[in-house]
Fold:
Amino acid sequence: MSNTHHQIVIIGAGTGGVTVAAQFKRKNKDLDVVLIDPADKHYYQAAWTLVGAGTFDFKDTERPMESVIPPGVKWIQDAVSSIDPDKNAVQLASGHRIDYDYLVVSPGLINDYSLVEGLGDAINKGGVCSNYVNSEYTWEVLRNLKGGNAIFTQAATPIKCGGAPQKIMYLAADYFRKHGLADKVNITFPIPGSVIFGVPEFAKTLMKVVDRYGIELRFFHKLMKVDAEKRQVHYKITAESSMIAGCFYALNPEIVDLDPSETDVVLEYDMLHLAPPQAAPFFIQESKLAFSDGPNKGWVDVNINTLQHSQYTNVFALGDVAALPTAKTGAAVRKQAPVVVENLLHVLHQEKELSPGYHGYSSCPLVTGYGKMVLAEFKYDNVRDSDKMISMFVDTTKENYSMWLLKKYGLPFMYWNLMLKGKA
Structure:
């Protein structure tokens, strides 16, 4: 086993890691920056919703990893097996050890199928699909469905882009309409939360979209099991008994609950699209960087404004793995990255004052049909935080064709050509 020392080590060459690395090099080309990631390819995951609806080519969402590594940054193509922040060391799967002065943690998250019974055996076949896993299979399932029950749902864990499970639902509903299937497909949306979207200004518009498509909503439904053989999905209603009646919106009599109990729900599906249960990578969960208990157990413990670790001052985290009370999106990373870079350089230069510059900004481009999109931007406490310039010309709480163009063309261009190059 050999050891190597580097000034700044970044775990993860996804959106957060590459963006931060590029910004470091733009600040100071002499910084010694290393990216650790085992993947061969880099993906623009935000377009997978459009791939799942047949309006974007999957090949355009991927590029060779080596093509996005910023100039002057060393890429170690290896997996991390453990982190020892007390010794400023990262252990790799190959047996190699990397010592660091400063660490940036941004490895993303993982799909943990074990948290829902039967899901691991059911996924990617028999009509059980997920844009998070294989968006091309979602499109296959969607275009082959000629009738029956289409269920869109999500696990009761933090997930990438909380709005993604309903984006594909709206696109599917629009697809069914355009192909004369609206009266033949019953759409239901069981979710673990109590509202369709946390920001009231956008939730109001989305409820109108739900009404337009005739979608049945079910709140407080915790996903428990997928029975691929019987093509059934099981839920547990988590609301108190006095509130159960309020868990249903626009009940469709053709969507039958097969379980007679009050809190257990069993639904049959012909198409089941879901956001699988997600978690921090195991090497993060098992490290001293993560919360050891409580609601944020397993996620990296950072100050929600400075993004500095609460205990290890030479460690910062951003992106999906950070325990931040906001949506896990690429748009959030765009605002987090400059704060991480600025504050790590403050620590490097032994400047005690850190910038509390991140206020929870995130964005969810809510596609509501082909050619329609609501641009939901918000910050901590579900406060609307829409771009002032865009809002001068477009009411982003409403469905807009211009926002659809932004989603399909503008945002991918910005991602590849500006964000990953440290320019946005």
The chain has two domains: 3-109+280-360+413-421, 113-277. The mean pLDDT is 96. The CA atoms of residues 102 and 348 lie 8 Å apart. The two ends are 39 Å apart (CA to CA).
